[in-house]
């Protein structure tokens, strides 16, 4: 296991919990934080005990964006050479285990983008989402113009990216950015329950379901349908599929072997 300075990583049963932990800076995402998130995903993905990963922040802020104080002196070549966007973000998006973002308070800029890299977002009624980069004279750099547009459509994505305004939890749910809104004091209970439920499913089936849904973001419908069909057929090679259907017929709970 790696040693972490800016995040807390815990294994809670079959759920890996990554908690961003820079409270004084509202969990601003520095290069170091992104590097640690990537290392944590590496660790949790390699850990057979873990079936689902949750990323969360504090009650006040999931993350208020990339660390502006760290970014301010950077030049084009600094950013280009470091390939910052590839460090943490892509690692979360490439994770094959299911991931959930548990968002309370601010999820702005890179914070909103990090949440969108997860498979889905459950938020508290205090959540606020936005891409305020334009107010700093820059634009989103790790998915805010792309994943947000695919998630909520052009009209709202343009509105958020061009005005820099925040969207509250209710608007985010209406727009399809989040899957559920939960009272703030119940957020982690609800997210952990969802994560435990997912972790108890057949792991290869969950990975295939995730891969198929993600293809809808990246390919035309016909290609996505092909991927889905192939993966669906592939589930018939799983012992878990045979067990799942037998258990249904025998009116009992399935025992997944994750193969
Ligand atoms: N970076 C650095 N420090 C921050 C950040 C941030 N993103 N957000 C908050 N802080 C710090 C504040 O400076 C303050 O520190 P200090 O006490 O030392 O002054 C502390 O956190 C508390 O913040 P506030 O006093 O501002 O708290 P408020 O409750 O008054 O306001 C807000 C909360 C509205 C969230 C406000 O802090 C804010 O507007 N933050 C900035 C939001 C923002 O613009 N985010 C976008 C950043 S750019 C980005 O994310 C680009 C992503 C591209 C990824 C690729 C990168 C290379």
Automatic annotation (TrEMBL):
An example molecular function term from Gene Ontology annotations: enoyl-CoA hydratase activity
Record's keyword annotation contains Repressor: no
Entry keywords, A to Z: Lyase
This enzyme's EC code(s): 4.2.1.17
Annotated InterPro entries: ClpP/crotonase-like_dom_sf (IPR029045), Enoyl-CoA_hyd/isom_CS (IPR018376), Enoyl-CoA_hydra/iso (IPR001753), Enoyl-CoA_hydra_C (IPR014748)
Family annotation (Gene3D superfamilies): 2-enoyl-CoA Hydratase, Chain A, domain 1, Lyase 2-enoyl-coa Hydratase, Chain A, domain 2
SUPFAM superfamilies reported for this sequence: ClpP/crotonase (SSF52096)
Entry superkingdom: Bacteria
Leading EC class: lyase
Family: Belongs to the enoyl-CoA hydratase/isomerase family.
Protein name: Enoyl-CoA hydratase
């Amino acid at each position: 296991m790696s040693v972490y300075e800016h995040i807390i990583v815990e294994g809670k049963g079959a759920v890996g919990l990554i908690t961003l932990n820079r409270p004084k800076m509202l969990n601003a995402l520095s290069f170091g934080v992104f590097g640690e998130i990537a290392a944590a995903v590496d660790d949790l993905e390699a850990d057979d005990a873990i079936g689902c990963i949750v990323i969360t922040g504090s009650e006040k802020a999931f993350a208020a964006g990339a660390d502006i104080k760290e970014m301010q002196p950077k030049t084009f070549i600094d950013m280009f050479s470091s390939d910052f966007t590839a460090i943490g973000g892509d690692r979360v998006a490439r994770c094959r285990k299911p991931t959930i973002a548990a968002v309370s308070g601010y999820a702005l800029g890179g914070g909103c983008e990090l949440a969108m890299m997860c498979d889905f977002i459950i938020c508290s009624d205090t959540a606020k989402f936005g891409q305020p980069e334009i107010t700093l004279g820059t634009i989103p750099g790790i998915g805010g113009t792309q994943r947000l547009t695919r998630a909520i459509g052009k009209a709202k994505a343009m509105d958020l990216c061009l005005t820099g305004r925040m969207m509250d939890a209710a608007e985010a749910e209406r727009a399809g950015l989040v899957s559920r809104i939960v009272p703030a004091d119940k957020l982690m209970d609800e997210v952990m329950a969802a994560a435990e439920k997912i972790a108890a499913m057949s792991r290869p089936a969950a990975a295939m379901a995730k891969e198929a849904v993600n293809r809808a973001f990246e390919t035309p419908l016909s290609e996505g349908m092909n991927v889905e069909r192939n993966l669906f057929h592939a589930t018939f090679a799983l012992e878990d599929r045979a067990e799942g259907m037998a258990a249904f017929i025998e009116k009992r709970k399935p025992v997944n072997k994750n193969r």
